[in-house]
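User: C-alpha cells for this one?
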Amino acid sequence: MADNLFIKGAETASRFEVKRQGYTLAFELSTDALECLCFYEPSTLGGTPLTNSELQENLTKYGLKAWIIEEAVTTLLNSAASAKAVSCLLLSRGIPMTPGEDGQIVLDVSDDLEETAAEMKEELAQIVDFRHVQSFLNVDAGDLIATIIPPGTGEPGRTVTGKIIPPQPGTPAKLIIGQNVRLSDDERSVFAEASGRVCFRDNSISVEDIYEIDGDVDFKVGNIFFKGYVEVKGDVLDGFFVKATKGIKIKGNVGVCTIESDGDISFCGMNGQGTGVINCGGSISANFIYDSLIECAGDVKAEVEIRCSQIKCLGVISVNKGGLTGGEYFALAGIECGNLGSVTSLRTRVVAGVHYGDLEELNCLFNELKLLIAGFSEAPKGTIDVKEFAQKRASITVRTQEVRSRVHEDCNPKINVKKMLYEGVNITLGIISDTIAEARKGPVSIIENTIEGGLRYIGMTPLSFKAQAIEQTFIQQHENDLKKMNAARTGDGL
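Assistant:
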C-alpha cells in the first residue's frame, strides 16, 4: 500500500522521453505529479509520425494512463499527422487532495442583541425604544458554553500516475480553558462553573464579571445593565445609560446620559447639558465635568475643571489643575481646587463638612413641620385635636434633633483654594455661611472661625489636616491669651 502513496520530493523521474525514427515524444510531470505535459517534435529526416497505438503503449509503459484528457490526445495525434511540433500540451490532470477543515469552537450561547433586534423589526406596530438592545452572553453554572468541533481528515487525491495523495488534516482548534469553566471528559464540550458573562478572546474562554465594549455605547450596543464591571473603550453617546454593580471605566467622553454603579466610575469627560446624571457608590475620577448632576458616596476628582454642575458627595471634591466654577457642590470631606468661582461672578456655591443626605432629610422635616403648622393654623377651631398636633410636632422635633446630632468620621468643613478665590462665591462650612465680597489669592485654606464667627483664612494645608483639629489650636491659643490677659489684669489690680 505504501508503494501506491505519493510522497512529494521522493519521485526520481519526472520526465520520460521516447525517440523514434520519425519523432521525439516526451512526458514531463509537475513537481506535485498532478499534471503531465506532453512535448512532440517531428523528425526532419522523415519517418512515420506518432500513432494512437504507440501513444497508448508509451502511456502504459510509464504509468500515465490515469486521468488522460481526450481532447489533448486528439490535438497531439492531429499535430503529429500534420508534422507539427507540440510543446507544453496538458495531457492529463490528476485529482488534488482536499485538506481537512480546521477544528472550530462554536459558542452555544445566543446573542441577545441580534434576537432583540429581530423581534423589534417584527413588532413595527408598537412604539419601541431602540436603545433597549442589551447584548450579553450571560450563563449560569452548568450551562453549555461552547462545542469543540474536531478537525476534518480531508479527502485523498490522485496523481497522474494513479498514486494516492494523502490528505492534509485540518488544524485542531486551540482552546485555553480560563476561569470558571471546565472541559468535558471527551474534550468536546465546555461548561460554565459559575454564573457570569462568557468571554472568548485569543483562544481563551472563561466566565467573567467584566463586560468590555470595544467602541462607543450607541444604538448597536444599546443601554447596558450588567451585574459586574463595565469597560467602555469609546464614548457613551447622548440618551443611553450604563449601569454596573462593580464599577465603570469609560475611556472616552460621556454625553447626556445616566451612569450608575455601586463601585468606582472613571471617564475622560462629561457634558451633561444640565440633565446628565451619575449615581456612584464608590469614587469618581475624570478630566472634566460640565453641566452634570452627580451623587457620589466617595470622592469626586477632576484633573482639569468642573463647571456648572450639581455634585453631592460623601468624600472630597477636588480639581487638580483648573477651577470649580458655577453650580452647587456638597462635600462631606472637604473641597480643593485651583480656582474657586469666576471673574464673571458666575453663581457658585460650595458646602463642605455637611452630609448632603442629612441636609435633605432636615429639609424634608422642616417642610413636614411647616405643613403641619399651616394645617393647624388654617383649620377651624375645634376641628383638630391639639394633643395629637403637639405629639406630631414633638415627633418631628425629636427626629430633627436626631439628624443634627449625627457624627460623621469623615466630616471636614474645609476648603482649599490653590490659585484664586473669586468674588461672589457662597461658602458654607457646617452651619456657617458667607458670600465672598472680595477676591483673594491662594494658596489658602478656609475653615470656620468659631471664636469670632464667620470664615477663617489660613495658609493652605492638605485636606488630610482636618478643620476641627486646626481650629482647636486657635481655640487653645485664644484661651491661653485670655488666661494671660486675666493674669495680667489680676497683677495690675494687686
